Amino acid sequence: MSAPSDAMVEIRSVHKKFGSLEVLRGIDLSVRPGEVTVVLGPSGSGKSTLLRTINHLEKVDQGWISVDGTLVGYRRDGNKLYELREREVLRQRTKIGFVFQNFNLFPHLTVLENIIEAPVSALGRPRKTAVAAAEKLLERVGLTDKATAYPAQLSGGQQQRVAIARALALEPRLLLFDEPTSALDPELVGEVLDVMKDLAHVGTTMIVVTHEIGFAREVADTVVFMDEGRIVEQGPPADVLDHPTQERTRAFLSKVL
Amino acid sequence: MSLTSDPPIDPPAVKEAPSGAGPDELTVVPVRHPWRWVAIAATAVLLAQFLNGLITNPGWEWDVFAQFFTAPTILKAVWVTLQLTFYGTAIGFALGVVLAFMRLSASGFLRTVAYGYIWAFRSIPLIVQLLFWFNLAYLYKELTFGIPFGPGFFSFDTMNLVGAMSAAVLGLALHQAAYAAEIVRGGVLAVGSGQLEAAAALGIPKFRQLRRIVLPQAMRSILPNAANEIISLFKGTSIVSVMAIGELFYQVQVVYGRNGRVVPLLMVATVWYILLTTVLSVLQHYVERHYAKGAVR
């Protein structure tokens, strides 16, 4: 593989169009293991699409992405990229956790069943092992007493914490968060961010699309600012948030800060 | 006072505000509904008349009804009706699921074929289809299994293979499949795209996604419609009486053709249809409750 060995995520000149609308216009980004990368940008800037290409929920039109040294969605042979079969893509995704804005918990399954579903069916773990692991994860997100509850019986913040536990149950190498607090009532945002901060402190590699500037400042190793399908600037939060070099970054930050 | 006026202080309300008496001494007088009582009385009289007629009118011939209700020939006919319903439903819905996923497929060819099937079988009256299947031997003398357009391995005489009963099951099932396909497709479409994305993002194998994530949720909107279809098929089996199959309605006609007791024998069929439909409705209730797990309403 052409990906440098020290990067967890390597994104090279990625382009993506929806019809005639070019949402990603040449994205290059590397994320080192254990780092937290926060992606900021106005809506429509392509940040969610970029995140979704990393686990191949969206196919890229050009360029490539690798996670943990493996191409995502393709197999390379010489100068050709062969599209992977769905089954192989699904297997790749078990190494990449994804947390959605709207949680997307399975409403007909209990909290515990939501968490053990993928370890049992995708990784073939014995049910017992999966349940024991799920109970530990529930403890970690502070929801030990909710194992038998259904998602509809939980608050938004609790649901999102379950969704994080569900993503962690696969022991992924990388966690992707797509605006994880945007659908929450303001008073519930904190509990989700706290769980995410804990994950960051134990060295989980995370890419977080969010509007929470405070979270970016406190937790991020790298802040990436995107606009109109391009990365405008990136660097440590102290640089990008406090001394942005680009006019567009300044304009965006002045609106959200 | 009207709902639109919104004066800061409402003088009449202030005047009528209970003063002097303590809250415990006030009694609430409900609104009276005299016309409701008139409607109840009229309905009760009509109902009483109807029930009285059922009991006193000798034309119902309840003794004949009782004699035939559990007669072996009728019970056998009920069994045939149940078999037609069961096979019609089972084969119809199995094929319907296949057609539904063909219509949801990424392949335009599969989508078109499935749509063509549904279009055709919804357009042709069931009775016409049944007579077609019944006369299949006229079109194809023998059925051969083998390589398409190539040599065959086994041959069957169509007349022997597609008897009246299997022609009826085939007709009912193929007809049912067209409706089942649309019901199943509707149910699958009702499952949010986020559910599929979450399942895909977790790497859950494709077939498992369908069986564990999509179908249980789709069942909630499939079930009421499917129950309608099964009940309507159950009663619709009476249409195969045109093929001289000994199902309930045909058998009842045979008996009253012999003894001339039309009304009590029609009542025999009616009560059996009502009883068994009730059983299906009760089953529906419990199956729906099973699939309502985790739902708030």
How would you explain this protein's 3D organization?
The complex is a heterodimer of chains A (257) and B (297). In chain A, helix 3 crosses helix 4, helix 3 (111-121) runs parallel beside helix 5 and helix 5 (156-168) packs parallel to helix 6. Helix content of chain A is 36%, strand content 26%. Chain A is globular, with a radius of gyration of 18 Å. Chain A is built from 9 helices and 12 strands. The mean pLDDT of chain A is 93. Chain A is α/β, with parallel strands linked by helices and 257 residues long. Chain B is 71% helix and 4% strand. Chain B has helices spanning 11-16, 34-56, 62-69, 72-103, 108-123, 126-134, 136-139, 158-161, 164-190, 193-201, 206-236, 248-259, 262-291; strands spanning 142-146, 152-157. In chain B, strands 1-2 form a two-stranded antiparallel ribbon. The mean pLDDT of chain B is 87. The chains are: A alpha/beta (257), B mainly alpha (297). The A-B interface holds A 55, 57, 86-87, 90-94, 96, 98, 100, 102, 104-110, 117-118, 121-122, 150-152, 166-167, 170 and B 192, 194-195, 197-206, 208, 212-213, 216-217, 291, 293-296.
Distinctive features:
heterodimer; A: about 260 residues; alpha/beta; six-stranded mixed sheet; four-stranded antiparallel sheet; 9 helices; about 35% helix; about 25% strand; globular; B: about 300 residues; mainly alpha; 13 helices; about 5% strand; flat
Largest sheet of chain B: 2 strands, antiparallel
Main beta-sheet annotation of chain A: 6 strands, mixed
Question: What is the residue-mean pLDDT of chain A, rounded to a whole number?
Answer: 93
Structural class of chain A: alpha/beta
Radius of gyration over C-alpha positions of chain A, nearest whole angstrom: 18 Å
End-to-end distance of chain B: 37 Å
The radius of gyration over CA of chain B amounts to 29 Å
Mean pLDDT of chain B: 87
H/E order of the elements of chain A? EEEHEEEEHEHHHEHEHEEHH
Spans of at least 5 consecutive residues with low confidence of chain B: none
